[in-house]
């Protein structure tokens, strides 16, 4: 019973201290706010003290401001235009074909109608042309048709084309 009393007594005194701490902190904040109001009693006095600094900063920024035409000219000259030339396929290696010789390239796994259309746009129509692709041609083809790098090798287009020619 005594232990309950002691625990209750110390708990109550601790809670009371915490309550008083927050109240004291609140009062200190009010006192500090009142003191700062006394310090700043005349805005004109402060403005006259700061005005020379403001004028100096404005003059510096006006010196830094340049004509928009100059900025535009500088931006145009410093802008680096990066145009990547599309690589060229070596048609001497893969051969030439015409649209009337067209094979159904969608029989090759990894070539859908869209990729077939892209290949036809760059004059690749037959399995024979695909079977003659070299590694440099595959890299060029990947860039030309904006295809996933390495996908042609993974899907083994060349091997599939060779097997389709055999049939």
Structure, described:
There is one protein chain. This protein is mostly helical and 167 residues long. Helix content is 68%, strand content 0%. The termini are far apart.
In short:
68% of the residues lie in helices and 0% in strands.
User: How do the SSEs run, as a string of H and E?
Assistant: HHHHHHHHH
Overall, the morphology is elongated
Number of helices: 9
Average the pLDDT over all residues and give the rounded result: 79
Fraction of residues in H or I helices: 55-70%
Over all CA atoms, what is the radius of gyration? 40 Å
- Briefly note the structural class of the backbone: mainly alpha
Residues in β-strands, percent: under 5%
The overall strand count is 0
Largest sheet: none
Q: Termini separation (Å)? A: 100 Å
Poorly predicted parts: none
Describe the structure using short key phrases.
elongated; 9 helices; mainly alpha; single chain; 167 residues
Q: Topology of this protein?
A:
Layout (H helix, E strand, L loop, with lengths): L1 H38 L3 H22 L3 H11 L12 H4 L18 H9 L5 H5 L3 H10 L6 H5 L1 H10 L1
């Amino acid at each position: 019973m005594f232990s309950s009393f002691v625990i209750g007594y110390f708990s109550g005194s601790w809670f009371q201290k915490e309550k008083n701490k927050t109240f004291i902190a609140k009062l200190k904040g009010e006192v500090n706010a009142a003191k700062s109001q006394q310090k700043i009693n005349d805005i004109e006095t402060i403005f006259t003290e700061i005005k020379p600094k403001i004028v100096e900063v404005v003059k510096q920024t006006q010196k830094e401001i340049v004509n928009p035409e100059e900025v535009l000219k500088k931006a145009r000259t410093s802008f680096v235009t990066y145009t990547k030339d599309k690589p060229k396929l070596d048609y001497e290696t893969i051969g030439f074909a015409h649209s009337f010789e067209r094979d159904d390239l969608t029989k090759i796994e990894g070539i859908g109608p869209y990729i077939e259309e892209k290949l036809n746009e760059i004059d690749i129509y037959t399995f024979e042309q695909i079977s003659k692709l070299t590694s440099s041609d595959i890299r060029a083809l990947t860039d030309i048709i904006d295809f996933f790098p390495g996908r042609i090798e993974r899907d083994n287009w060349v091997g599939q084309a060779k097997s389709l020619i055999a049939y």
